[in-house]
Amino acid sequence: MLDQITWDVAVVGGGNAALCAAITAREAGAHVVLLEASPRSFRGGNSRHTRNLRAMHDRPDGVLVEAYGEDEYWDDLLRVTGGQTDEHMARMTIRASAGAPAWMAARGVAFQPSLSGTLSLGRTNAFFLGGGKALVNAYFATAERLGVQILYDTEVTAVALNAGLVRELTLVSRGFPVTLRARAVVVASGGFQANTSWMRESWGEAADNFIIRGTPFAKGTVLRDLLAQDVAQVGDPTQCHAVAIDARAPKYDGGIVTRLDCVPFSIVVDCHGQRFYDEGEDVWPKRYAIWGRLVAQRPDQIAYAIIDAKADPLFMPSVFPAIRAGTIRELAEKLGLDPATLEATVAGFNAAVVPGSFDGARLDGCQTEGLEPPKTHWARTIDTPPFSGYPLRPGITFTYLGVKVSEQAQVLMNDGRPVANLWASGEIMAGNILGRGYLAGFGMTIGTVFGRIAGEQAARYARN
Fold it and tell me: Which residue numbers delimit the FAD-dependent oxidoreductase 2 FAD-binding domain (predicted)?
């Protein structure tokens, strides 16, 4: 049946970016099929685990408080990426984000005010009521109501390019090989973080110790196929959205609850009991995504956050309980660290702390003096039992290597020519804007903005 139909638009993927593209194309009158590699129960890709979207606003708007203008948004992005971004494309995304919450709400997504402990994002980010799973369910319900054909357990294994056009897609649908034809195609199939062998090509054996926070279906099959056909590549294969998560998390699909937000109020040591980076460099929403990479670069890709009782109420706890002890020596033994070394590290840190006015909600200037690396904010002595430790591993959300696109989301070849009927949205093209680093909620922004652009452009091509 599938191989006897020529669809107007085929959307590859089942997360936020794919759903935005499919809904937009269908609303534009296109006959749309959405191809989701996962079974229905795991639909939604990484979007199932999201909580919010970063949106520009010039005044309070819905759940968004105060104002968050284009220049501040751009400055935040510029700082976390270190300038490794396309300013034109980034600003275009930022401006378009202003209309995203209203568009989403009109398609069933509900929002709520940010809760205490959610990275202090109430001014910049709109939080989804029910989280990412509720968002995904709302979009799927809208897509079904509009008449989008949704195929689960359907993996696209090849995109046949010839003379600047996608001629057909090769699929495995519920175990059966299928050839599918469409006038226009949108690829929104994510990165390759769940493909350990591909990750090893850039990271070596360290990749074996990475934990994949989201979907196990992000193997990069479509991405690798397109790059092998002379589609232009963008991004560094070693760059990714990587956070420090609880080392006790499952290998795949643990989601956002496995993230640890205690780092700014802790000291973080490696397996040798030594600190290696400034835990208080900046507010957590602008620095939480560097810690996965930092831990990935440490021996055995493991680290430990150490706090005392004063810090316990300052962050959202992990789904896994803290490892607690009455003394630093006892804690070291429970964590498998050398007790004398950890005691010396804590003592050296405590001696370097400069007394100040602690404020966990802002940059407070409570710092160390004469310590390397320093701690520039939220530095308090670790001296009040019980002491707690959390083991950390790199938690990979998505990779930044992707396909190069135009500002109209059209996929480009290495010679600069666009593929006439191929567009991309979401993580498979996020590297056009995210060269490195991450800004909380920005992945959802990219997926929403470029998903809508890709869906509109694909539908227009199919009609004409």
Answer: 8-433
